[in-house]
Structures are given as structure tokens and as C-alpha cells.
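Forwarding these from the shared drive since the link keeps breaking.
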Amino acid sequence: METAQKQNDAVMDNRLSRLWKVFGFGTLLAVSCLVSYWLITTILAREYFASKDNDLVGGMWAVVATIFVFRHSILESAHAALSRTVATLLSFALCFLYLLIFPFHVLGMVALIWTSTVVLALIGRSEDIITAGITTAVVLVVAGVSHGPGWLQPLLRLVDTAVGIAVGILTSRIAPALDLVPEQ
């Protein structure tokens, strides 16, 4: 009888510990997103002359980058950050060059998605194709609807992404230190 009670207590302790880790990990991710958003929309928005809409898009972009790299381990976060950086740099370079010459057009968007897919596959980074494609689509569409020069969008979104990646990496290092990494 005593053994069964000890087993029940151990199971309950394990569930409570897991619940603590899950809630803590989720809270840390949410706070990380808040920090990324705040940095872009409050602090960095003062440094460049973008519209309020651009600031909000930038905040969203930083949050997405933070979520993308915030992982259960430092190694996973570093791998995600590398993946996000490679895909982002290629996409932003293609978008920047395209938008220097042409305005947004759906055919330009699909041509750049095709180009980034081929380049990434050829250099052995096929795992980055989806991120590059999404990045290209968002940057070009935002350039198409924003006021001001389209070529500015890739540059602004590059800053937003860098901030999001940095915040995600830094805060993902806190989770293991606080024992907030839930078992996968």
C-alpha cells in the first residue's frame, strides 16, 4: 500500500514538474516576443524613418524571428538561427536587387522564390527553402503595399530579423538555466 502511494506521489510530482516547465517555457517565449516587438517598435523605430505601419510590420517580423530560433536547447537554437540567417540573407539580397529595379509584381515574386529554391538546393541548404520562400513572399508583398521606396523593405526587415534572432538566442539560453525545458 505504501509503495503504491509513493508511486502516485512520484507521478504527481513528475506531472507538476512538467507543468511548471511547460508554463515557464511558454512564459519565457512570450516575454522574448514582447522584448523583440518592443525593441523594434519603440527603440529602433526612432532610428529609422519608417511609418507606423512599417514599425508594426517590423515588430511582427522580429517576433517571428524570435519564435523561429527559441528552442529547447542552445544547439537547436544555434542551428535554427543559422538556418534563419542563411535563408534571410539570400532572400533579402534577391528582394533588394529586384526592388532596386522593379516594383512589386507577382511574377517577380515567384521568380525570386524559384531562384532562392534553386540556389539553396545547389549549395546543399534545402532545409532553408521554405523559410527563404516565405521571407521573399512577405518582403515583396509588404513592399508592394507600403508607402515609400520598395527597396527599403528588405533592409528594414533584415534589421528586424537580426533583433529577433538575437533576442531568441539570448533568451533560449535562460530556459535551461531556470530548468524550464520541457521534455519533448
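-- next protein --
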Amino acid sequence: MRFEVLPFDRTVEEVERLPLPLQLTVTCSPKHGPDRTVEISERLRALGHSVIPHIAARMVRDEAHLDALLDGIADADLDGLFLIGGDADPQGPYESAGELLPLIADHPRRPTTIGIAGYPEGHPLISDEALDAVLREKSRFADYVTTQMCFDPDAVRSWVVHQRENGVDLPVMIGLPGKVKRRRLVEMSARIGVGQSISFVRKQRGIRQLFSGRSTVDSLYDALVPALGDTELRLAGFHFFTFNQVVDTWEWYRQKDDAHPTPAGTPTGLDAYQLHHEETRA
């Protein structure tokens, strides 16, 4: 399982409270940019964690900047790179992840694994047909896909099935909310565009009920964990959006996994990514 954190100093203090190493990913902040992401990733790696930095293509200024970022990732022994387009105005010649991805994939210091994003609920500015075509093209250069946070487990499963039919065979990490306070979760969901599944939740069970009592992440985890054993879906595990409540999320996950462990024999985590990485480049 992976736990996503924010590129802040207080993140390092929060992670220091964890009793054992985890697989962490560090987001790319529009305010601080990818250099800050790599810096925080290095500090977390020094604490013994497996760390994957997010890089926003629109925040890469030029090829020299890309070289410096990839050098930093390699020198710090980070565990790959997760590439997104980003929402900021372009600071260089790259407007999308698809433009930068081939350069990273062919770079002399190519990260060990490259992840790309998937959108089970679509994108407000891009048609579903265009998203499908772009994902299929990007999958030629990547090693896995992580889905945007979604509150509708049926939508997630349907999207994965559709992508398999569309020829995308990369392992998929399912993006789930972490054990996050209700108000924080609603605010961040609105900010990153999780709209359709919020409407689904409101229609099906009521937003108040879902975000209290038996939590959102409990419901989603219980609904999706059986799918990890479906070899045709090729799911690699869960990616938890912790919004820096990483200790709370990890403690919750430990209890859930003890009660409902991942199906035996499921190829999860970086092992699944590396398997695909080696197969496609053999």
C-alpha cells in the first residue's frame, strides 16, 4: 500500500512518528514546485522509507531542469517517479504529462518505475475518448497507473475493466481517501474535482451519513479489497490520499488489513510494477 503526503516540513515531523518504514509518495505543490517535492522526498528516504516523488510536467522549466530533477531522484535512491500534467500555468515547454513522458522514459537516469494518472470519473476539461487515447499512448512509456480519488467503487471497477478492454494492461493502484477528518476530505475532494462520486454518495446514502459513523474509507476499502485478488483486473494495491494524516491512516489500515487481509497471492506494490517493467523491456 502507498501513502501520499504533502511536501511540507511538518510532513517530515509527522512521518517521524511512524514506527516502521512505509511506501510514501510526495505530491507536487503548485506553490513550491517539483524541486521542493524532491527535497522532501530525500528527507523522507533518509528516514528509511520507500519514497516516490510526484512531478508536474507543467512545472518543469526545460530539459536542464528535468536533468536536475532526475539526478536528484537517482542520487537519493528514490523509488521511481509519478508524473502528472499539473494545473499550474506552464513554466516551460511542457503542457502535459504525455509530452514529458517519452523524455523521462528514454533518459540516461530513467527512474526505476514511472507512474501515470487515471481518471475513473473522467476529467472536466477532456473528453472520455481523448482520455482513453492519451492513457493508451502514455502506457507505452509507464509502469503503472494510479487512479484519482473516487468514492464510487463500481465506477472504479468499471473503469479498470474498460481500460483492459482498451488495451491498457499496466498494474493499477486504486486511489482511496485516507483516514481524514470529514471537513478536510470534503474540502480537498472539491478542490481536486471529485464531483461525480460525491453526487453519487449524496444520492445513494446521504453525504452526512457517509462522512460520519462508518467512514468513507471503510466503505470503499471493504468494497474494493476483494478485487485485489482478481488477476484479470491486475490491481497492484491501494494508494491512500492522506492529506498529511498519514499516521492516522496507517493505524487505520493496519487494523483493516488484520481484519480483512489482502487476498493471498496478490501481486501488490513495487513488485508488481517491477515485474511489468521487466516484462515490457525484455
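The domain at 2-280 is CATH 3.20.20.220 (TIM Barrel). The longest helix spans residues 33-46.

- D.
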